[in-house]
Amino acid sequence: MLLERIEKDFKQALREGQEDTKAVLRMLKSALAYKAIELRPKKQELTDEVAVDIVGGEIKKRKEAIELYERGNRPELAAKEKKELEILFKYMPEQLSGDQIKEIVLNVIKEVNAGNPSDFGKVMGLVTKQTKGKADGNQVSQIVKEQLNNI
User: Fold this and answer.
1) What is the pLDDT of residues 104-120, one digit of tens each?
2) Which domain does 7 fall in, by range?
3) Residue 68 is part of a domain; what is its CATH number?
4) Disulfide-capable partner of 85 in 29, 62, 125, 134 (CB 3.0 to 4.6 Å)?
């Protein structure tokens, strides 16, 4: 369904002459095509879950580029990356709030009976499975660390 939506939005951007959207979706379609080729020998198909992972990867690249451009005093390039980031976020599932992530973390801590910060790996692994594509990994990691330090 996500793949169809990307294709439909790409065609609409072509018709309406939306250059920014067209460029971002062309890049995204290319990344998806490469992934589909990579999965072919494994007899796997490109699913929406895989597509969300790819979109997430592209979002991460944009965030890193923005940070670097801002440090390098290149606001015009950072602004371009921010526009691309906005377009990419349209193709991600609804993001979890900090409180929702905290609730998931607390449930996992109870589930695995975590008692100290050394249980970070166990907790983080399970939380990541539940928040994949729905939350920023750095934010999740920070919340897990905070909650484990408060035990």
Assistant:
1) 999 999 999 888 889 89
2) 2-89
3) 1.10.1510.10
4) 62
